[in-house]
């Protein structure tokens, strides 16, 4: 479709359409966990540098979202959850989304390198590449392990934040990475349980499609169990402490209880209540990550590092 025909049919795309391409809801989690990485690090960051770093990390995350929407426009048009996005809804052309993603990617990486250091910039560049190419273009459409391996893309922001402050990687930043990495599969599989028809229609080999819902329920439970040592282990690193441990015990207990409830259900039970348990676990899992990374920041304040981090 030509630009002229497109504008005649849909009108000029608005600013909100381009913002939507950046997946702002996902960007909130990216920014929040990156801030936690900066704040928890043992090295002070000037407030101007810290704010600039957060801005460029957010733009990098948004750029990968735009590239993902460009590549996935065909399946987004099929899935109920995504058909209202700017490209399948006809408000933005795919070429515009691709251009926006590429330009913002280059800008974010270069500016983060100039503002902080090239280790942080390199991690940001790898994150964008991993999400846009490794996950979106390869894993998502080829293997039911798409979420397991692809979850690494969303796990890098606290490592990037830590690198902004320290110029490197440490055991603590790797543990924060692992927290998100191990959390991602049960979080998304809970969603897939009540959105399976979308993935069926789009031909995406989500675990619910390739192995069925009973197998997915087992995976939700065992991956949540496997998350336990990571979630609790962070309490015994330099970024943890009693506040974090208390938060982790409560939130992980809720997550385990929800995963066990999912494990014990069958499709008759789930359909009878409209997948109420699965939807609740999905919502609780979102709160889980925000509370735990919020606790890391609170713990940093108690350690006396938060004031130093932005002085």
From TrEMBL:
Its main location: membrane. One of its GO terms (biological process) is heme O biosynthetic process. Keywords: Cell membrane, Heme biosynthesis, Membrane, Transferase, Transmembrane, Transmembrane helix. GO terms for molecular function: protoheme IX farnesyltransferase activity. Its EC number is 2.5.1.141. It catalyses: heme b + (2E,6E)-farnesyl diphosphate + H2O = Fe(II)-heme o + diphosphate. The keyword Disulfide bond does not apply. Pathway: Porphyrin-containing compound metabolism; heme O biosynthesis; heme O from protoheme: step 1/1. It is a multi-pass membrane protein. One of its GO terms (cellular component) is plasma membrane. The chain crosses the membrane at residues 26-45, 51-71, 92-112, 118-139, 146-165, 177-199, 220-237, 243-263, 286-310. The keyword Membrane applies. InterPro entries: Protohaem_IX_farnesylTrfase (IPR006369), UbiA_prenyltransferase (IPR000537), UbiA_prenylTrfase_CS (IPR030470), UbiA_sf (IPR044878). Pfam families: UbiA (PF01040). It is found in: Cell membrane. Carbon 2 of the heme B porphyrin ring is defined according to the Fischer nomenclature. Converts heme B (protoheme IX) to heme O by substitution of the vinyl group on carbon 2 of heme B porphyrin ring with a hydroxyethyl farnesyl side group. PANTHER family: 4-HYDROXYBENZOATE SOLANESYLTRANSFERASE, PROTOHEME IX FARNESYLTRANSFERASE, MITOCHONDRIAL. Interacts with CtaA. Belongs to the UbiA prenyltransferase family. Protoheme IX farnesyltransferase subfamily. This is Protoheme IX farnesyltransferase. The lineage of its organism: Bacteria, Pseudomonadati, Pseudomonadota, Alphaproteobacteria, Rhodobacterales.
């Amino acid at each position: 479709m030509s630009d002229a025909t497109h504008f005649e049919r849909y009108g000029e795309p608005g600013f909100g359409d381009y913002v939507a391409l950046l997946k702002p809801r996902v960007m909130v989690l990216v920014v929040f966990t990156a801030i936690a990485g900066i704040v928890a690090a043992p090295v002070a960051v000037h407030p101007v540098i810290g704010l600039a770093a957060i801005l460029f990390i957010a733009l990098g995350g948004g750029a990968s979202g735009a590239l993902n929407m460009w590549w996935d426009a065909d399946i987004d048009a099929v899935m109920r959850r995504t058909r209202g996005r700017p490209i399948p809804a006809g408000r933005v052309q795919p070429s515009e989304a691709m251009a926006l993603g590429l330009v913002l990617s280059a800008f974010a990486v270069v500016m983060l390198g100039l503002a902080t250091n090239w280790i942080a910039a390199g991690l940001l560049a790898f994150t964008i590449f991993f999400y846009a190419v490794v996950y979106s273009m390869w894993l998502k459409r080829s293997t039911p392990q798409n979420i397991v391996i692809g979850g690494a893309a969303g796990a890098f922001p606290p490592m990037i934040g830590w690198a902004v402050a320290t110029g490197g990687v440490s055991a603590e930043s790797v543990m924060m990475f692992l927290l998100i990495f191990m959390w991602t599969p049960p979080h998304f599989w809970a969603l897939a349980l009540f959105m399976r028809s979308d993935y069926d229609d789009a031909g995406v080999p989500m675990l619910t499609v390739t192995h069925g819902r009973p197998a997915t329920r087992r995976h939700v439970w065992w991956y949540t169990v496997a998350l336990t040592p990571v979630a609790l282990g962070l309490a015994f690193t330099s970024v943890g402490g009693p506040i974090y441990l208390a938060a982790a015990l409560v939130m992980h207990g809720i997550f385990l209880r929800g995963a066990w409830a999912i494990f014990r259900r069958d499709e008759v039970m789930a359909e009878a209540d409209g997948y109420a348990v699965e939807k609740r676990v999905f919502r609780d899992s979102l709160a889980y990550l925000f509370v735990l990374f919020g606790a890391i920041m609170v713990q940093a304040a108690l350690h006396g590092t938060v004031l130093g981090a932005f002085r």
